[in-house]
Amino acid sequence: MSLDLQDVSAGQNAMLNVAVKNLARLSSAGLLLAVFAVTTAVSSVQASSGEVPVSVELIREGVAHRPLFGISFPDDGKRGAAVGGRGTVLLTSDSGNSWSVHEVDTNLALLDVALAEDRIIVVGQMGLILVRDKDGTWIERPVDIKERLLSVDAHADGLAVAVGEFGQVRISIDGGTTWAAPDVEFSSFVDEGYDPHLYAVEITNAGRIIVAGEFGVVVISDDRGASWRLVRKGDESISALHVRSDGTGYAVGQNGIVLKTIDSGDRWERVDSGLGGNLLGVSSSPDGLVIVPGMRSMLVSTDDGATFVPVQDSDVNSNWYQQAATAGGGTFAVGHTGRILRLSVP
Questions:
Q1: InterPro entries recorded for this chain (predicted)?
Q2: Would 131 disulfide with which of 45, 176, 257, 329, CB 3.0-4.6 Å?
Q3: Phi and psi (nearest 5°) for 10?
Q4: What CATH number is given for 5-344 in this structure?
Q5: Per-domain residue ranges for the chain?
């Protein structure tokens, strides 16, 4: 497989930062040149996953140098967005069945996206934050940093949080219009004294902010960023997390680490994933389905994390998929060459 170095380093999320110290997502250049919609699935295969049959359906095929790095659906499960290299923004209004390309005025890689109410918030390289209002206008919101912002989440009440390299955190309480840095030094949470890269942020339905990243740190704020407490740290870096409204959640990352919480992040217990590779994303649903994409691997659980088995699919096992999100149409994963997969268990 031949991959562009810039897209690889951008697309493989936190894990390349872990493998090569402080090597973060590099530049992706170019503009979107066309607007189009993919309205039908390109291919569909049945992938055997141990005793769990998993349907892996290719919803969208992109191009080699425009990988996708982030995907998000709000609670309604119909509207969604995906973002990626070279300013790529894709939108759906039919639960992920079809996606249209929307132009934004940037050459930078867009690394994550969040939807709340009528707004879409995108973060990326050079501290970029773009916000799309309900009228469809994209506006760049100024922040005083140049570090890459790697993850973003948003709440319906206007709270939004973006995190990134070297402990950078920016918080908005007005839906992304203005952003400010909280009064916290994340270096105080790690023995090494470094500002850890922060790879994932989640805002629960109750408004709790959960941040995770390098050195296995998980840090929580229950007062919109005014104060923070460390609930976990370890050896393996955490690249992604997802917490459901019922308090069950998962964090995944380096060396196949999978952590589970049942109390909205206060306590985390390690789950045996049976995998030693790097895991890059996670999504779960109340029916107990958990999907974990990664580097040349993808895990699935149908019993809410009690057991995981690998998805056996030639594309999945030879490439990378970075993030996953669940919508009304299934669980979707995005990754190399701008692909979008839909995964389901019959």
A1: WD40/YVTN_repeat-like_dom_sf (IPR015943)
A2: 176
A3: -75, -40
A4: 2.130.10.10
A5: 5-344
SS3 per-residue string spanning the chain: CCCCHHHHHHHCHHHHHHHCCCCCCCCCCCCCCCCCEECCCCEEEEEEECCEEEEEEEEECCCCCCCEEEEECCCCCCCEEEEEHHHEEEEECCCCCCEEECCCCCCCCEEEEEEECCEEEEEEHHHCEEEECCCCCEEECCCCCCCCEEEEEECCCCCEEEEEHHHCEEEECCCCCCCECCCCCHHHHCCCCCCCCEEEEEECCCCCEEEEEHHHCEEEECCCCCCCEEEECCCCCEEEEEECCCCCEEEEEHHHCEEEECCCCCCCEEECCCCCCCECCCEECCCCCEEEEEECCEEEECCCCCCCEECCCCCCCCCEEEEEEEECCEEEEEEHHHCEEEEECC
pLDDT of residue 77: 84
